[in-house]
Amino acid sequence: MNNYLPTNKSILFDLDGTIFSMSSTLLPRINKYYSRPVIEAVPMIEHMQQTGGIYPGLLTVDSCYKPRLFVEQQIYPQCFELINYLIANKFDVWFVTMPLQNYHTKSSQQEKIAQIQRYFGQKLAQHIIFSCKKFEIPGLYLVDDRPQHPAEESKAQWKAILMEQVYNYQIDCSRRISTDNALTDMIQLMHRDAQMNISDEKQNKEQSILISQ
Ligand SMILES: [Mg+2]
C-alpha cells in the first residue's frame, strides 16, 4: 500500500455512477429478467423495491452480486479526460468508494482496483480508499453522484461536487458537473472557486486594514 494519504488539497472521485457508468453493466443484467427494458431509474434497488416489491429487488440484488459487475463497467470518456488532465497538472487525485457489504467484498475491491490500474496505471491504483464514511477523508473536492452527497459537505473538509445523474437532478448543490462535459465543467468550477477565494482574501485584507485603523 501507499505510505501517504489524501490531504486537504487532494481531489477525490467516487467510482460507480461518477466516473464509471453503472448502467453499462447493471442495466443489461437486469433487463435480461424483463420483457420491457428497465430505464435508468437508479438507485435501481431502491426504485424497484418501492415500485415492484421484493422479487424485482431480489433480481436486482442478484445482478449486483454476480462477479465482474465492476470490472466490466465503462468509464465515461469525459471523466477519463478530466482525471488525466488533473494528473498531468500535478493534482493529487484519489478514488473513494464504498465497499460492497456482502460476501463479494474482497472481489469487488479487486475489480475496482483493476479498473483504476487499467485506465490510470499502477500508481493511481494505490490511490483507492474503500470507505462508507467519505466525510472523514480529507480533500479539496469530492466528486460523487449520491443524492446524499451535498448534505455531507458540512461534516467534511472537502467541497461537494455532484456528478449529475437522472436520480439527483432535484438535489440542491452549487457545484455540479456532468458526465458529458466533465472536463470543461470542472475547469470552470475550479476557476470560479479560485476567483471567489481571491476576492474573499481581498475582502478579508480590506476588513483587517479597516479594523486596525
Ligand atoms: Mg456512486
Automatic annotation (TrEMBL):
Record protein name field: Putative
GO biological process: pyrimidine deoxyribonucleotide catabolic process
InterPro entries: 5'(3')-deoxyribonucleotidase, HAD-like_sf, HAD_sf
Record-linked PANTHER family: 5'(3')-DEOXYRIBONUCLEOTIDASE
GO molecular function, a single term: 5'-nucleotidase activity
Active site: 14 (nucleophile), 16 (proton donor)
Pfam families: NT5C
